Amino acid sequence: xxxxxxxxxxxxxxxxxxxxxxxxxxxxxxxxxxxxxxxxxxxxxxxxxxxxxxxxxxxxxxxxxxxxxxxxxxxxxxxxxxxxxxxxxxxxxxxxxxxxxxxxxxxxxxxxxxxxxxxxxxxxxxxxxxxxxxxxxxxxxxxxxxxxxxxxxxxxxxxxxxxxxxxxxxxxxxxxxxxxxxxxxxxxxxxxxxxxxxxxxxxxxxxxxxxxxxxxxxxxxxxxxxxxxxxxxxxxxxxxxxxxxxxxxxxxxxxxxxxxxxxxxxxxxxxxxxxxxxxxxxxxxxxxxxxxxxxx
Length: 296
Ligand code: KIV
Hints:
The protein is an alpha/beta fold. It has one domain (15-250): TIM Barrel (Alpha-Beta Barrel), CATH 3.20.20. Helices cover 38% and strands 12% of the residues. It has twelve helices and eight strands. It has helices spanning 15-19, 38-46, 58-61, 73-85, 105-118, 132-140, 156-159, 169-185, 197-206, 227-230, 248-264, 279-285, and strands spanning 30-34, 51-54, 91-95, 122-124, 145-150, 189-193, 211-214, 222-225. Helix 8 (169-185) packs parallel to helix 9 (197-206). The longest helix has 17 residues, at 169-185. The chain is elongated. 3-methyl-2-oxobutanoic acid (KIV) binds at residues 34, 53, 55-57, 95, 191, 193, 214, 224, 226.
């Protein structure tokens, strides 16, 4: 008996199928993982995740910025296109970055369309009721939208840091109202980030669309984590909600150090990792092998 589940049959997941995946009505929990390039998308898809989010965490885990505020629509589009080239069966969601849905509805729809043209099948944006006009405009352009409430990292300065949200009963009720408004405006799912388990449960019970949690406990309809956190590639920060399933950064350092040692000590490349001339050609050039006769 293995400890991992069997690979799933890969029927491409659609937005309507996601919209109806509520655990309370017997649906399997949704699994979402971020990915930012074709190899990441292939790994996520081969592992059977349901949704791939080309998140604005791109800024931190790939591009080396300190927060998500630095990425642009062009950055997300560039990486969405790389993910889409892997042709995953998972649903590809492109994250609308900060200031791409804040100025006007026309601007918002154009930016969402840029991500769709890059290969996204849906977009995600942060914020509650104040985003409703933007959500409605995007939905009106036939682009599916995922909401994101709770800790919204694009509001890091307004929130005064990366803090758990919804800790008071008023704040919890605001989150319930935000989630209901987003679902009513047409969001097909809502991400809940860093909210107490009890609040996530209340929100999940209150909306007909699935909630996808990150640091939001066990009662959501799905979970999302960042690729580099799950695999231990990003190991500088470790929020409480991250479960690490591998230590690839450590493994990579060991592997690259072995390569460097092999080069420096002459163990790499070996003869069978080298190309050789046919013996008669080598002879005409006066070549020789220090290991004996020139191999072909
Ligand atoms: O950008 C991202 O990776 C996200 C997830 C953390 C939900 O928004």
